Amino acid sequence: EHQPRGKMVFVDEDHLGTNPKFHVRDSEGTQWTVKMGVEARPETAAAHLLWAAGYYTDEDYFVPSVIVEGLPSHLQRGQNLIGKNGAISNVRMERHLKDEKKTGNWHWRRNPFTGTRQFNGLRVMMALMNSWDLKDENNAVYERTSEADCPHKIYLVSDLGASFGTTGYSWTQAMAKGNLKSYSHSRFIGKVHPEFVDFNVPTRPALIYFFHLPGLIRRMRMRWIGRHIPREDARWIGDLLSRLSPEQIQDAFRSAGYSPQEVDGFSKVVQERIAELTRL
Q: Of 19, 99, 140, 217, which one's alpha carbon is 20 to 30 angstroms from that of 170?
């Protein structure tokens, strides 16, 4: 019932992140963030699968075609993706809740949930989906209020676009994000110890990063997120995921606009990885 529909009017451009984005408002006054480019499909699928596991996510929808009124004559990013009369194909639209306000970011190393089973399960989910762009600025803290509740904080991974592709930064975005060949050929579990599991996500970046030392150091420091996770916690999230039917897993990719062949391919890899977790 919340999916985007009707007329969309341009508000302003969003310069954050690596993919082109801008804000629009619909006829009911709801604000949306429109993301164009290669991340639209994988981010939608990742948000839906993560939500199915019980975690908070942004409310994301994949829209095959949308017409935006009032677009400026030139956007700083993504102008080449806009067709005639403001028509744009294959976008992810994030719905902004009226009772929600972003208050900051949370850090993988320092947060209120460090060491808990649920936090370790989130780390496993990132590995399962090959979500490798685990920068702290991709994590958001929201304050939500409603008539019945006092304000409360919500912690979530707010940018999941770098999912279902390679296990780390690659030469091209086309291989690194939403690429079935990259995803199906990647290694999920690196090593199983008596008490812990090391996953293969995120891996060190492509060789191009070795010529950019600050970026290389930053990426290398992310590798701990997928390592030294208690086996019991990894098996726990696997058991939760095993309750999803094959059709429900397929729905995550179907809702993201993938072809029937891609839906089947991505879903099979996810099911295989869930089975690996339950065998730990």
A: 140
78: left (phi over 0), alpha (psi -120 to 50) or beta: left
The C-alpha atoms of residue 52 and residue 202 are separated, in whole angstroms, by: 22
Instruction: Answer yes or no: are the C-beta atoms of 166 and 159 closer than 8 Å.
Output: no
User: Is 145 within 8 Å of 181 (Cβ atoms)?
Assistant: no
Residue among 159, 53, 162, 154 at smallest CA distance from 113: 154
- Rounded CA-CA distance 84/77 in Å is 17
What pLDDT, in 10s, does the model give residues 116-145? 999 999 999 999 999 999 999 999 999 988
Residues whose CB falls within 8 Å of the CB of residue 19, separated by 6 or more in sequence, listed in order? 35, 36, 37, 38, 39, 77, 78, 161
Question: 10 by DSSP, 3-state: which?
Answer: strand
Q: What residues does 154 pair with on adjacent strands?
A: 142
Residues 252, 254, 259: CA angle, nearest 5 degrees: 140
| DSSP of 203-233 | -PPPGGGGG-HHHHHHHHTTGGGGSSEEHHH
Could you give phi then psi for residue 231, rounded to 5 degrees? Answer: -60, -40
Q: Give the tens place of pLDDT for each residue, 231-240.
A: 999 999 999 9
CA–CA dist 27, 77 (Å, integer): 25
Question: Closest Cα to residue 125, out of 56, 220, 208, 67?
Answer: 56
Determine if the pTM surpasses 0.85.
Answer: yes
Per-residue tokens: 22: 């801008």
DSSP state of 259: -
DSSP per-residue codes, 67-110: EEET--S--SS-GGGB-GGGEEEEEEEEEPPTTEEEEE---SSS
